[in-house]
């Protein structure tokens, strides 16, 4: 009888001790959760204070939820920062030509010289076209990023499309005394793409080179296994590896991708269109050259 009573007390003691430890663990977990909720920026997680497997499993599941929430918060904050930067850049891009236009309108009003007025009107027209180009870029980007952006796929000879695009800018390169080299495989390389958008990609990359090439511009096309490769190359100038990592970002304000009345959207649009047509685009520095490389599956 005595042993039974002693055994009962031992069982009760063990149960009470377990209950007390369990309550302590839960209270500690609640305190940690309150700390996490009050300071989410610290990215803290629950620390296991119990050897109980069920509680440990519960804390693990809770930590997974917290980790997912923390990742969502990080993504949200980054996107918020990006949106603020984009709004600032859009405001800057629109404000600059608008301020110039308003300034020249004031000059026209205060001038009695017709020749001066005509000159100012020409400048206003140029600035208005720049502004129109900015707005068109913003509109096109918003359309291209949607999943239902229409693409009309067809079989296209890359050499023909590339030749036509390069010839269209021959006079402009000649005026700037930039040497142009075009190297292409003799055997035609065919890809499946949207003709208009492929031309747009080529035009964007040629225009980019026209703005920043100092003396030389090269286009090289060749086949690599089952891919058609097109490389656009010009002098790298002062470009660094750090700048290169942002080259395709929207509204990037580096000298290479956003300058000379540019919104910085040309290369962004080029990247999106390339990927929509199952292609890949990459930018790199090779010695003294800045290289943008396109790769499309060939047929």
Explain what this protein looks like in three dimensions:
This protein is α+β, with helices and mostly antiparallel strands. The chain has three domains: 73 residues; 60 residues, Signal transduction histidine kinase, dimerisation/phosphotransfer (DHp) domain (Helix Hairpins, Orthogonal Bundle); 145 residues, Histidine kinase-like ATPase, C-terminal domain (Heat Shock Protein 90, 2-Layer Sandwich), CATH 3.30.565. The chain is 59% helix and 16% strand. The chain has eight helices and seven strands. The strands form two sheets. Strands 2-4-5-7-6 form a five-stranded mixed beta sheet. Strand 6 and strand 7 form a beta hairpin. The longest helix is centred in the N-terminal third of the chain and has 58 residues. About 2% of the residues have low confidence.
In round numbers, the mean pLDDT is 83
CATH domain fold name of the largest domain: Heat Shock Protein 90
Query: Low-confidence parts lasting 5 or more residues at pLDDT below 50?
Result: 255-259
CATH superfamily of the largest domain: Histidine kinase-like ATPase, C-terminal domain
Shape type: elongated
Name the CATH class of the largest domain. Answer: Alpha Beta
Q: Count up the helices.
A: 8
Number of domains: 3
Number of strands: 7
Main location: membrane
GO molecular function: phosphorelay sensor kinase activity
Domain Histidine kinase: 89-299
Catalytic activity: ATP + protein L-histidine = ADP + protein N-phospho-L-histidine
